[in-house]
Amino acid sequence: MTTPSAVVNPAPAIRSEAVAPAPPDVPRVSRRGILRIGFFAGIAAMLSGIGATLLNSLYPRGVAGFGGPVAVLAAQIPKPGAPPVQNIEGHFLLVNLAPGEGRLASDETPAEGGLLALWWKCPHLGCTVPWRNDFVSPHDDGHRRGDFVCPCHGSTYTRAGVRIFGPAPRSLDTMEIELTKTGITVQTGKRREGSEDNPRRAIPYAPLPPRPPTT
Ligand code: FES
């Protein structure tokens, strides 16, 4: 007689399950933190916007008028010895010096004369200095007629902007002049501090010959 074979339950298979790595710790940002980040991001965006606007306004491009080139046509240039011409656009006074004109009585260095562009800003406290055709300075040689006279504290300057008298620390500043086909261009951004040397900074200028009549 055969005995029934015992049914042996197979041993449960040991399954080795891969253990998933624990997720990295993600720092939790609180609601308040999010609000704070948003606030500072907004401030940073606003500041960078202001900075960009400021830089844009300061960047010199296509500067015209004072600070850049200002053209003066031949017809607007004064004759040698004539009263200076004020240029509103460029903030300067255009002088056509006759030979030797504009020096102090004590200055014996020759000056050939010519065109000089004087910045109209008084070097004392910045008032605009006009030309006074009738003014006779009691200083210097005491005979010359016509001077630049500052209306604020009375500094006076020769036709070449050389300081004669008053609290101004120096002579009127000069601007660079270039000759052109139609007259001159004054580079109002290229200025030199004024000094007794001003008369010798003038550039010779010959008026353009008259155009031949057209037939
Ligand atoms: S501002 Fe011209 S003398 Fe004072």
Q: Any overview of this molecule?
A:
With 215 residues, this protein is an alpha+beta fold. It has one helix at residues 31-58, and strands at residues 69-73, 85-87, 92-97, 114-119, 131-136, 145-149, 156-157, 163-165, 174-179, 183-192. It has a domain at 69-201: Rieske Iron-sulfur Protein. It is built from 1 helix and 10 strands, in the order H-E-E-E-E-E-E-E-E-E-E. The strands form 2 sheets. Strands 1-10-9-4-3-2 form a 6-stranded antiparallel beta sheet, with no helix packed on it. Strands 5-6-7-8 form a 4-stranded antiparallel beta sheet, with no helix packed on it. Strand 9 and strand 10 form a beta hairpin. The radius of gyration is 40 Å and the shape is elongated. Mean pLDDT is 83; it is low at 1-8. The structure holds FE2/S2 (inorganic) cluster. FE2/S2 (inorganic) cluster binds next to loops. Residues 122, 124-125, 127, 150, 152-153, 155, 166-168 line the site of FE2/S2 (inorganic) cluster.
Strand order of the largest sheet: 1-10-9-4-3-2
Q: Which ligands occur here?
A: FE2/S2 (inorganic) cluster
The multimeric state of the shown protein is single chain
Which percent band covers the strand fraction? Answer: 15-25%
- Uncertain stretches of 5 or more adjacent residues: 1-8
Amino-to-carboxy terminus distance: 150 Å
CATH topology of the domain at 69-201, by name, is Rieske Iron-sulfur Protein
Strand count = 10
